Amino acid sequence: MHTIYHLIYRLKITLFAIFFPVAAVAFFAGCSAVGPDYKQVEVKMSKGGWHSELAPGLAKGALSSSDMAMWWSSFNDPVLSELIDRAIKNNLSLKEALARVREARAQRGVSQAATLPTIDGSGSISRSGSSENSGAKSVSTQYFTGFDAGWELDIFGGVRRSIEASEATLQINIEDLNDVMVSLLAETALNYIDVRTYQKRLAIADTNLKSQQETYSLVESQYQAGIGSELDVKQALYTLESVRSKIPAMRTALEEAMNRIAVLLGQRPGALHAKLQDQSEIPVSSEDLTVGFPADTLRNRPDIRMAEQEVALRTAEVGVATAELYPKFTLLGTIALDSLSGGDFLTASSRSWSISPGFSWRLFDAGAIRKSIEVKSALQEQALIQYQSSVLTALEEVENALVAYAQELELRKTLASGVDAARDAVKLAQDQYFSGLVDFSDVLEAQRSLFSFEDELAKSNGTVASDMVRLYKVLGGGWREQVPPSEENLKHNKG
User: Fold this and answer.
1) What is the pTM of this model?
2) Beta strand 139-153 with 328-339: parallel, antiparallel or unpaired?
3) What domains lie within the chain, and their CATH numbers?
């Protein structure tokens, strides 16, 4: 066994003696890899803030990393916070994204391994004998063991460019993980707000339904007593049924929102109904959101950084393709023990070796390599355009979200005023009807208007909360501190 170790040691010494001079030449000749070097994409941004005016609840200033990372805590809703935590731990899309990151990390290791020599070991024992009729009957045994080593010298940087491509792929998958996180947290919160909004709307509908049932019973009693008219009865009935007809659709939407949250948390539909069935208020953000500046958004959004890494990947692939224009240099070495006798098999006299430097160069391929370079260059150009498009889309999403939030606040203010007026109108119409001053249709119209305004106000309250969540999402909130502990080393703090 000691001789085997000695053999391996001699192989290393021999390979080093041959490889080192060539490696030195390769280092000085190939310190600059062929193909373009990636340079960070620069986007010209105005120094000012957003075009849209900031509504109440929004503030100017730089984005706060801590506030953005835990944005849902601003709603002060324990149930929402619990759902968010469970989604981070159990969501299947997030687990899939983590698996893609692990795959990319392993693939990067495969690419890095190509820079080092490979060593293969083999061994055999063969026994043979000749026949008596051949005139030279004999029996012999041959013992063999050896090691083969090979190394492709990365003189022109093709391997280094492939490592750059693998690194960019890893970063793409990390940013994809962060992007999945941003979307997951926002979708969980949006569906939770939908649950609370539909519960509020159903409560309003149930209250209104009871009111309409009382009105219908009263009008029918008056008609039976010969006081009212049949028209009043029919009008009260179709108003009652109109309210009742809106309830099934809201119940369906409520069930869908609950089921969606369960799936986001990696559970079967229906698993969260018991937890969410008790009505609670629509969550309201208690803190001002600092919206930052456009440049902050570009640094904070994972999808923008992912698009930038796509440019880096395509740039590296141009270098990989360009390296195919140049010759490939290899060094092959073998050292072995070969003997017909087991007694002297492990002695120095059984040792054999060979060194085989070589190269290969594709001299003619009808322009295939150059066309491949053109293909990779075109893909690089496309990635750059896609990055620029992603930047514009991100800015558009923020501007639209700012406008939507501001306008919904105005709508909610108007609806709140309308609810107050509708309540007064119902009371006045009822008083005047019983005084004989107005028809019963005026009472029904006032009641329908009140229900409509109350329902729209509930929807608007939900939309205001949802618009705030969407603002956090388009600003890239929710990912920095949320990578699961087992993957802490995957956090990407670029920018």
Assistant:
1) 0.84
2) antiparallel
3) 42-121+171-326+368-490 (1.20.1600.10)
